Amino acid sequence: MLAVPGMASLLGVSLLARTAITASGMALTMYVVLGLGMSYAAAGGAAAAMTAGLALGGPLLGRMIDRRGARIVLLITVVVQIACWLSVAVLPYAPLLAAAFAAGLLMVPAPIVTRQAIAVMTRAGQRRAAFALEAVQGELSYMVGPPIVILCAARLPSGVVAWGVGAAIVAGGVGIALLNPPLRAWDEAPAAPADRPRRREWLGPRMIAVLVMAFGATIVLNGTDLAIVATLEEAGQVSWAALVVAVYGAASITGGLLYGALPRPLPTWLLLGLLGLVTIPAGLAHDWRWLCVAGCGAGLLAAPTLSALSDAVSRLAPASVRGEATGLQSSALGAGFALGVPIVGGAIDASGPAGGFAAAGLAGLAAALMGWLLSRRSPVRTRSVRGDAGLLGASDAR
């Protein structure tokens, strides 16, 4: 896959941007707590403002990319990021919330552009492996970004750390704009606004199924992180949390690479259902060693599930609205991350860490079931990634 022209450079620059974007919430948290001397609840408010902006901005930026192209949207968002991150470290709390929301709303759309470009730069037989690499890239960003911010915040002023994260986001956005990866195949002519399919023509049961499963998948992943911390806190082993999460991430990367090499894909609802199913027994672990064992089992299914979701969106969305569809996918993923904490946190408060793992796993199973039911609805006609008309069967909900 890395031998595909332009793929290695795209994934490399995108990894920089996505790592910085992933670290941005932690950078805000560190600034509010250490720089402003406020509570973690206040820090959570700033992170929530950015998350809300990200959730709303995904479809907006995707639609702008469909109409104006990636480069102009990337450059606009880069300018916004420069203004927001330069001001973050000098703002009091109330204006900081507005800046965080604006930064989220007009965040550099690195994941959206990367997924669209992968759909165009690869052949049908390569696409699943390419999206597996993209999912591994996302896992690496979560493993690397927040820990780097925490380490830097222990040694540098939190405002400087925030500026550094903003600079990395800007560098990633400029890099992708310079690469200007193709977002349409040679036989996919840009559609005039009047020719764009109406949303109800492509946002049907199968696409809704994928979005529901994306939402459920990130509830499982974010809820699992919270339940791991709660389990280790109860056992007096919080210092081992980083190792347990790293083992989970390494297992996810391994699973993504293995899934990309499989000769045939697996249905997304099956991958998500298995992920939810193997998450529930992790509640039986009561120390870091058994959590590492449980993390290996669940982690192997994390990246494959996320890559299958991206693959499904790329095949279900017509070329002229692929950006908007990918933006909706990003919003569904972000909503799952945002709601995973209160859902699983409430279960932990009510019944302990085991209840947190159960809540996360059951949320995944429920989303998988709903995705399976929706994917069984009658197929709809749309256009494939290469512009060939075709009838999408149940396999295209994978």
From TrEMBL:
Q: Which GO terms describe its molecular function?
A: transmembrane transporter activity
Q: Where are the transmembrane segments?
A: 38-60, 72-91, 97-118, 208-232, 238-259, 266-282, 288-309, 330-348, 354-374
Q: Which InterPro entries match?
A: MFS, MFS_trans_sf
Q: Which superkingdom? A: Bacteria
Q: Which SUPFAM superfamilies match?
A: MFS general substrate transporter
Keywords, sorted A to Z: Membrane, Transmembrane, Transmembrane helix
Protein name, entry field: MFS transporter
